[in-house]
Amino acid sequence: MIKLKDIQKRLRDEIKQSSMSQREIAEKLGINPSTISKYLRLDKFPSIETFANLCEILDVSSDEILGLTK
Questions:
Q1: What are the C-alpha distances in Å from 3 to residues 11, 24, 38, 45, 68?
Q2: pLDDT tens for residues 30-55?
Q3: Which of 16, 26, 46, 66 could form a disulfide with 33 if both were Cys (CB 3.0 to 4.6 A apart)?
Q4: What pTM value is reported for the model?
């Protein structure tokens, strides 16, 4: 079963492993850097549009973040 907390943790790990700063990621997405911080603290999950763009920016498959890869 897929759980939101697991998805958030995988997303957080990808953001942390990125060579980009939170500010750089936020600028590419057109959002406030504090929002990226909320994603890292697992306080907030991005909208589907932001999630898709974030996956593209991080060069990671959305299936991987969602836990759909085997």
A1: 13, 28, 18, 12, 12
A2: 999 999 999 999 999 999 999 999 99
A3: 26
A4: 0.89
